[in-house]
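Q: I'm teaching a short session on how sequence maps to structure, and I want students to see two examples side by side rather than one. Could you give me a first protein with its sequence written out and its structure tokens following it? Keep the formatting plain so it prints cleanly on a handout.
A: Of course. Example one:
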Amino acid sequence: MKTINVETPNGTKPKENWKKKAEKAVKQRAETLKEDPKALQKVAAFVIFFGAITVEGLVLFANLSPYMKASNVLIAKALELNTIVQSALKPIGWIVGTAGLCAVQFGEIYPLLLKSPNTQKYAKASSIALIAYAIDSTLAVSFWPPLKVSLLEFVQTPLMGNINWLNIIIILVTLFGGEAIIRLNKTLGETF
């Protein structure tokens, strides 16, 4: 097989031109880091924060399932529908479930979003957060059971093997992930 050498109008090979541009960009970035020592901290904070947001986004997407299931069940029971109509209304359950998840997640982080809360405003926000946590934990525990056996059987013979640790981790991340992201943002906010 024959190799064809292509040259640009200025006489350099295209690959060399890209290599030179890349080397120049790396050198410029290295100079920037030498001049501004906090630049590396900013890059690290950016990577940590957006990595955490990506993980939390995936967890929230996974957490959508209990809300969709609950909304589909509630719609079906409220309207007393047969299975064919229930299947047709699943997209509505998805929309209602998404709205419910957003409302609950906002309720959980609402106290953290207050700029300068007075006692009464903070008490109201904390009450909203407690209700949101109650709803979220009820749905999470019913969708991802923390025990592999019934609660009665676990109380009678408590064995560590009967605990579903993966579900417990999912429940904890689901419940406290949004709050952790807000706190991480406040902590790293000074770095950005």
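Q: Perfect. Now a second example for contrast.
A: Example two:
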Amino acid sequence: MPEYYNDVSHMYQEPAKELKNGKFQCPVCGAEYATRSGVFKHMQKQDCAPASLMFEGTITEDVAHSLFCDTVGHYSKHQRKSLSSFRKSKHYRGVLQATLHCMNNKIDSVLFMEWIRMSKKPRYYNHLMSLAVKDSTLVDFRNHLIKNEELIDSSYFFERNEEQILKSDSFLIRSLQRGDIGLDYCMNHKDIDLMSRIDGMCEANRIHLLSVVKVKEG
């Protein structure tokens, strides 16, 4: 079964090189640092290996390739979309980074990209991908979902997380803030019964819920 990442840890077993100019060089990507501790911290992240080695043949690459095919046509009508062309593309790493950002934050990448394209209006494809990994863009998108609840598959999310939603106020509030489940859905769902749970919530959860309501009404 394909993995999300390829194991490239063996590439970081080689020690940093001490150069004649007194700097220290990463043996994987060649980046230079003034101190040994600096290059050590850099190498600890294990994220500077060529993207093709880190992701080729993985689930992440499959998802990224699908996203590339869905989005690149808005910026380049003649871009080849085969997997081999994608791997050779200058956009390969950027699309992978955007894909990972969406996967880690559990958001619909195609819906997210379309919203960025329409609301932020990036002129170039690499600008679209750079916007996709910004935290501020993610916050704006989640607010967009809160305001436009019809874009959220609340029933699906409830089915997948029913026990936590019913037992944990904190989980429910976080899910509302993230746009994973709709406010109106929770208000009207007889089992969630959000209105009757408000009085029993801690102050922090009530404040967070109020913030969701303000976004919804704003």
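Q: What should students look for in example two?
A: Point them to this: The CA atoms of residues 4 and 59 lie 5 Å apart. Also worth mentioning: The longest helix spans residues 203-217.
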